């Protein structure tokens, strides 16, 4: 964006998109962004994690929180009637079937079987922190 002269007033990013925002905001260099993304991937691959799933659903975040089983979390509040869920793959599969039967749009996002943005990935943190330091 900088190359073509676009200088935005603000930035919005989710997950690794936040790294792109940090570059656009001049907090990270291009090299730092690439290294952070690389080491995030490395830490995820080196940590034993549950088989996870991420899904988008046409529910508000609060409504989804009230309906979700305990092992599924609202990972992102995308809008008044749209959010992202994250949790164990089998639990997510069962929950999405229930939502779909009730006529709620619910779709799995390709996440490499990782329950991003949930408590189920917190075990990656120590290794990622070590790499980033």
From TrEMBL:
Transmembrane segments annotated in the record for this chain: none
Pfam family, one: Acyl_transf_1
GO BP: any one term: fatty acid biosynthetic process
Gene3D superfamilies in UniProt: Malonyl-Coenzyme A Acyl Carrier Protein, domain 2
SUPFAM superfamilies in alphabetical order: FabD/lysophospholipase-like, Probable ACP-binding domain of malonyl-CoA ACP transacylase
Residues covered by the Malonyl-CoA:ACP transacylase (MAT) domain: 1-132
GO molecular function, one term: fatty acid synthase activity
Superkingdom, taxonomy of origin: Eukaryota
Name the record gives this protein: Malonyl-CoA:ACP transacylase (MAT) domain-containing protein
InterPro entries reported in the protein's UniProt record: Ac_transferase_dom_sf, Acyl_transferase_dom, Acyl_Trfase/lysoPLipase, Malonyl_transacylase_ACP-bd, PKS_NRPS_Biosynth_Enz
Organism: Cryptotermes secundus
Signal peptide segment: none
């Amino acid at each position: 964006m900088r190359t073509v002269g676009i200088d935005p007033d603000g930035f919005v990013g989710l997950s690794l998109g936040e790294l792109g925002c940090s570059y656009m905001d001049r907090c990270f260099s291009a090299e730092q962004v690439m290294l952070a993304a690389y080491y995030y991937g490395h830490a995820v691959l080196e940590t034993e994690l549950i088989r996870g799933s991420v899904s988008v659903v046409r529910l508000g975040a609060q409504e989804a929180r009230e309906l979700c089983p305990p092992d599924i979390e609202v990972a992102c509040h995308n809008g008044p009637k749209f959010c992202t869920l994250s949790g164990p793959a089998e639990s997510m599969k069962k929950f999405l079937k229930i939502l779909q039967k009730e006529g709620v749009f619910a779709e799995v996002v390709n996440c490499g079987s990782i329950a991003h943005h949930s408590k189920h990935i917190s075990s990656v943190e120590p290794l990622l922190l070590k790499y980033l330091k």
